[in-house]
UniProtKB/TrEMBL annotation:
<dbReference type="Pfam" id="PF00111">
    <property type="entry name" value="Fer2"/>
</dbReference>
<keyword id="KW-0408">Iron</keyword>
<feature type="domain" description="2Fe-2S ferredoxin-type">
    <location>
        <begin position="15"/>
        <end position="91"/>
    </location>
</feature>
<protein>
    <submittedName>
        <fullName>(2Fe-2S)-binding protein</fullName>
    </submittedName>
</protein>
<keyword id="KW-0411">Iron-sulfur</keyword>
<dbReference type="InterPro" id="IPR001041">
    <property type="entry name" value="2Fe-2S_ferredoxin-type"/>
</dbReference>
<keyword id="KW-0560">Oxidoreductase</keyword>
<dbReference type="InterPro" id="IPR036010">
    <property type="entry name" value="2Fe-2S_ferredoxin-like_sf"/>
</dbReference>
<dbReference type="GO" id="GO:0051537">
    <property type="term" value="F:2 iron, 2 sulfur cluster binding"/>
</dbReference>
<dbReference type="Pfam" id="PF01799">
    <property type="entry name" value="Fer2_2"/>
</dbReference>
<dbReference type="InterPro" id="IPR012675">
    <property type="entry name" value="Beta-grasp_dom_sf"/>
</dbReference>
<dbReference type="InterPro" id="IPR036884">
    <property type="entry name" value="2Fe-2S-bd_dom_sf"/>
</dbReference>
<dbReference type="InterPro" id="IPR002888">
    <property type="entry name" value="2Fe-2S-bd"/>
</dbReference>
<dbReference type="GO" id="GO:0046872">
    <property type="term" value="F:metal ion binding"/>
</dbReference>
<keyword id="KW-0479">Metal-binding</keyword>
<dbReference type="InterPro" id="IPR006058">
    <property type="entry name" value="2Fe2S_fd_BS"/>
</dbReference>
<keyword id="KW-0001">2Fe-2S</keyword>
Amino acid sequence: MSTDSTGEYDGPVTEEITVTVNGRAVTATVEPRLKLSDFLRDVCGLHGVRVGCEHGVCGACTVQQDDRTVKSCLSYAVQADGAAIETVEGLDDDGSLHPIQEAFHETHALQCGFCTSGFVMATKELLEENPDPTREEIQTGLAGNICRCTGYQNIYDAVERAGEKLTAETGSEE
C-alpha cells in the first residue's frame, strides 16, 4: 500500500519492469505481488503458460528464465526484471512445431494438453543438459511435472524421440 505526503492512500505500489519474453522486450508497470505466470498470461497474452496448482507442484507453469526452468507461479514478475523468459510459444518463431513438440505429438504424449507446455519446457532443459538421457534420468528430470491423463510412458517416449530429433538436427553425437 502506498500513501502520499498527507498519509492518504494513493493506490497500490507499482514498479516498471522490462522482461525479454520470447526474444521481445516487454516493458510494463506491475504490482510487486503479480506472479510471473499471471504477467505472462495477462500482460503478454501467452496462454501456453498454464496455472494449475499455484504451489509449484504440478509444473504446468514451467518456463525458462535465463535458460533455467522455473515454476512461474512461484516467482513474481518483478523478480524477472532484466531477465530473458522463454515460453512454449517461443520455441519456434516461424509457427512450426519445435522438435520437442513434434515428438510429443508423434508419440501421443498428451491427452487433455493442460500439462504439455510445462513438460515441453522441462524437456528442453533436460535435453540441453543431456541429449541422450536414460529412462531413469528422464523420470528424474521431469519429476517436477504432473500429468493426470497419460500415465507417463508416452511422455518418456517423447523425450527419447525428441533427443534423437535434436541430435540429428544438430548433427552431433554424444
